[in-house]
């Protein structure tokens, strides 16, 4: 496996850490993402759950993560064309009191320019936050494509749909968006700019991810993990992140 071109693990405030890794083209994404996971887990240990964000470019995915992580919002946006992985310990309320969960939040950060994600982005995900921009109708129309791809690779993980940028026009909150109802998804109006419902949505996603994992999680992830362990016995490294979740061939 080729070594990473750039690795940057940094503290980003409020107990969160971020790892950025530029990539050159789609053919190199698999190796780069597998190496990214290895670097993070070597540095921080394995996460309890993994939450991924999906949606068109510039719908505000990165800004939503920033708002949740640091309770800050920077209106300037830079397209990094990199995988951004945030690790944060999230405190949840439970029947036995408060508990802390180690969560990896994965942000596409430009990879969606291919109009699809590499299968390794979905590997091991336990929840998804699907985002559209209420000011751009096309981002709502494209939800069907993102949701189909999500279910191709993660058939059963919980998914939450969020309508971002409601601060631009609060009147949109009176509109009906049937996509969530059609697909039985949790739905919230949010604003990364003023923080409306952001913490609520992210904590709901983490709670659902924990429940999903406790109830058995994703069978296919377990199979691929087992295959990876078996391959290592023979002195080879099987990059399970590279395999599609359906119809894969070994």
TrEMBL record:
Key words of the record: Nucleotide-binding
Alphabetized GO MF terms: GTP binding; GTPase activity
PROSITE patterns tied to this protein: RAB, RAS
UniProt-listed InterPro entries: Small_GTP-bd (IPR005225), Small_GTPase (IPR001806)
Key word Nucleotide-binding present: yes
Keyword Oxidoreductase set for record: no
UniProt-listed NCBIfam families: small_GTP (TIGR00231)
Protein's name according to its UniProt entry: Rab-like protein 2A
Organism of this sequence: Phytophthora pseudosyringae
GN (gene name): RABL2A
């Amino acid at each position: 496996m080729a070594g990473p071109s750039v690795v940057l693990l940094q503290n980003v405030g409020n107990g969160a850490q971020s790892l950025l890794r530029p990539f050159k083209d789609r053919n190199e994404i698999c190796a780069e993402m597998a190496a990214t996971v290895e670097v993070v887990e070597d540095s921080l240990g394995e996460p309890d759950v993994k939450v991924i964000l999906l949606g068109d470019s510039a719908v505000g995915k990165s800004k939503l993560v920033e708002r949740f992580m640091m309770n800050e919002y920077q209106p300037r946006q830079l397209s990094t064309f990199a995988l951004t992985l945030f690790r944060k310990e999230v405190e949840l309320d439970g029947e036995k009191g408060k508990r802390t969960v180690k969560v990896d939040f994965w942000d596409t950060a430009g990879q969606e320019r291919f109009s699809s994600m590499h299968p390794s982005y979905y590997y091991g995900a336990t929840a998804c936050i699907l985002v559209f921009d209420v000011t751009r109708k096309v981002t709502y129309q494209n939800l069907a494509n993102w949701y189909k791809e999500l279910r191709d690779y993660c058939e059963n993980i919980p998914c939450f749909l969020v309508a971002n940028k409601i601060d631009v026009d609060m009147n949109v909150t009176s509109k009906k968006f049937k996509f969530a109802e059609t697909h039985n998804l949790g739905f919230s109006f949010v604003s990364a700019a003023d923080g409306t419902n952001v913490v609520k949505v992210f904590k709901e996603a983490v709670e659902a991810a924990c429940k999903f994992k406790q109830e058995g999680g994703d069978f296919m992830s377990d199979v691929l993990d087992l295959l990876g362990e078996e391959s290592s016995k023979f002195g080879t490294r099987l990059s399970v992140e590279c395999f599609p979740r359906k119809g894969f061939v070994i």
